[in-house]
Amino acid sequence: PRIGVVVVAAGSGTRLAAGAPKAFVGIDGSSILHHALAGVFAAPPAQVVIVAPEGREGDALSEALATAGDRRDLVSVVVGGETRQASVAAGLDALWADVEIVLVHDAARALTPPEVFERVIAAIHAGAAGAIPVLPVIDTIKRVVADEIVAVVDRAELAAAQTPQGFRRHVLDEAYASARAEFTDDAALVAEAGHAVAAVPGNPLAFKITTAADLDRARHLLAAPAP
Ligand code: C5P
C-alpha cells in the first residue's frame, strides 16, 4: 500500500524565541526542517507533504528538494493553519488518492531515526488502525489543581507520545472529518473517534525541539554523534 507522510512545520516557534519560524531555525549548518526531512527521506519511500508557515512555502520546497535526492517527485508543500490540528488537516487534503497509510510527523522532532518510521509502518501492516511511538515516563507525575497535589498517578500506566504517528488513511480522514475539539496529537483524535491505537517503542532521539535547551541538546547530539 502507498504511504504518505505529512510533516507539520507551520509552528511559530514562540517558545523557542529564535527569531524565525521554528522549522527554519538552524541546528548546525542546517535547519530543523532539513534534519527532519533527512529522516523522512531515509525511511521507506512515501509521498511527502510539508506543511509550512504562510509565506515560507518556497523556502520549505527548496529545503525539501535539496534533501530529497531521487525522491523529488514525491514532494509537495502546503500552507498550515492556526493550530497543529488545522495544519495536519491541510496536509491530509494534499495526499494522493492512492495513499492508504498516513504518517503524521512533527518537523520539530528533527532527529527522529528512520527506524521509528519503520516500526510504526510495520504495526499498521500487521493490522493496527493506528500506531504511535511512545517512551516510558521518567518523572513521577502529579495531578495538580492550583497549588495542591490532588491525585496519585501510576507512572507505570503512562507513556510519552512521539511522532511519526501512523494510521490507515480512511481512519484518520474520518477522525478529522468528525473532530469537534482541538487535540495535541493525532492519536487522541483517532481514539476520540472510537479506534484503538497501538503503541510501539519510541526513541529518545525523537524528542521535540521546543525550548532553547532542546535546541542545545540537538546541537550537542549532532556535534558528537554516537560511535
Ligand atoms: O506546538 P507544538 O510543539 O505542539 O508543534 C508540534 C509540531 O506541529 C511542530 O513541528 C510545529 O511546526 C507544528 N505546528 C504546525 N502548525 C501549527 C502549530 C504547530 O504545523 N499551527
UniProtKB/TrEMBL annotation:
Catalytic reaction annotation: 4-CDP-2-C-methyl-D-erythritol 2-phosphate = 2-C-methyl-D-erythritol 2,4-cyclic diphosphate + CMP; 2-C-methyl-D-erythritol 4-phosphate + CTP + H(+) = 4-CDP-2-C-methyl-D-erythritol + diphosphate
Source organism, top-level taxon: Bacteria
EC numbers on record: 2.7.7.60, 4.6.1.12
Pathway: Isoprenoid biosynthesis; isopentenyl diphosphate biosynthesis via DXP pathway; isopentenyl diphosphate from 1-deoxy-D-xylulose 5-phosphate: step 2/6; Isoprenoid biosynthesis; isopentenyl diphosphate biosynthesis via DXP pathway; isopentenyl diphosphate from 1-deoxy-D-xylulose 5-phosphate: step 4/6
GO molecular function, one term: nucleotidyltransferase activity
Function text: Bifunctional enzyme that catalyzes the formation of 4-diphosphocytidyl-2-C-methyl-D-erythritol from CTP and 2-C-methyl-D-erythritol 4-phosphate (MEP) (IspD), and catalyzes the conversion of 4-diphosphocytidyl-2-C-methyl-D-erythritol 2-phosphate (CDP-ME2P) to 2-C-methyl-D-erythritol 2,4-cyclodiphosphate (ME-CPP) with a corresponding release of cytidine 5-monophosphate (CMP) (IspF).
Protein name, per record: Bifunctional enzyme IspD/IspF
Shown segment, full-protein numbering: 7 to 233 of 400
